[in-house]
Design a protein that fits this description.
The protein has about 270 residues and is α/β, with parallel strands linked by helices. It has ten helices and nine strands. The chain has two domains: about 5-205, Alpha-Beta Complex (Spore Coat Polysaccharide Biosynthesis Protein SpsA, Chain A), CATH 3.90.550; about 215-265, no CATH class.
């Protein structure tokens, strides 16, 4: 069995996918399997994959990134699982550094790395609010997602505890998942940039949905049903109310009056 299962969900990103796949095969750590779940691509993705005989390639009708990731997880045979979004890249020492971390910390369940950000192909410094933390960071994860799928390696059995990615969420599914992970596990950080996170592609999911806080509110409501401490419940409720206020204000600004009423009176 491979030590690490690498899961790449993709949809109509053949040109970007090739670079992502190459960054996997250029890793200095070689005991891995690569699983690509094609979420209904209609471009040259299937033809591209034929150049890589070592890939496990699964094609499915378009059902969203959560469903695609979950399919890859269910097929994974490795002790550890690493995700790579098809618009991101790994530096060549990424897997080795994380496997070494787990060897030194056998009780750890999840670790991520720092990132290099590119926007429009140029280096971009993340803002202070994107700062990554290490340890029990549930509180820090509430305002926005500070855990990147492409930067993570985790033990496969973690899914038995927290479940899979929520397939009802078209976006912010990673935010929801890391909140659930953060309830039970410290999320460790290797303070070294080992991935390149690329932004400003027109097909990115964050560009296709208005009011991203709609989905974060759903995730926080789920969190509030968990057995968390009173202090954490109070913090989650505080963030929930702030995000709901911002969402209602945005609805009114865009003259979405019915959604504004819904979030004001029903979404509590």
């Amino acid at each position: 069995m491979p030590k690490v299962s690498v899961v790449i969900p993709t949809h109509n990103r053949a040109s970007l996918l090739k670079e992502a796949v190459n960054s996997v095969f250029q890793q200095t750590f070689s005991d891995f399997e690569l699983i690509i779940v094609d979420d209904g691509s209609t471009d040259e993705t299937a033809q591209l994959i034929k150049d890589y005989p070592a890939i496990r390639y699964i094609y499915q009708r378009n059902r969203g990134v959560s469903f695609a990731r979950n399919q890859g997880i269910k097929l994974a045979q490795g002790e550890f699982v690493s995700f790579l979004d098809s618009d991101d890249l790994w530096l060549d020492n990424k897997l080795k550094r994380q496997v070494d971390f787990f060897r030194r910390n056998p009780k750890a369940y999840i670790v991520q790395t720092e990132e290099i950000w590119l926007k429009d192909g140029r280096p971009h410094n993340p803002k202070k609010r994107h700062k990554k933390y290490s340890g029990y960071i549930l509180k820090e994860c509430l305002p926005l997602c500070i855990v990147s799928p492409s930067a993570v390696m985790l033990r496969r059995e973690i899914f038995e505890k927290v479940g899979f990615f929520d397939e009802s969420l078209p976006v912010c599914e990673d935010y929801d998942f890391w909140l659930r992970v953060g309830v039970f596990y410290p999320i460790h950080l290797i303070n070294e940039p080992l991935i390149i996170k690329r932004a400003r592609f027109p097909d990115q999911l964050s560009h296709r949905f208005w009011g991203m806080d709609r989905f974060r509110l759903k995730a926080i409501k789920k969190l509030l049903r968990e057995d968390i401490s009173p202090e954490m419940k109070e913090e989650a409720m505080k963030v929930f109310k702030e995000k709901r206020k911002i969402l209602i204000r945005g609805c009114l600004k865009r003259r979405r009056y019915l959604p504004a009423l819904f979030y004001r009176f029903s979404f509590r």
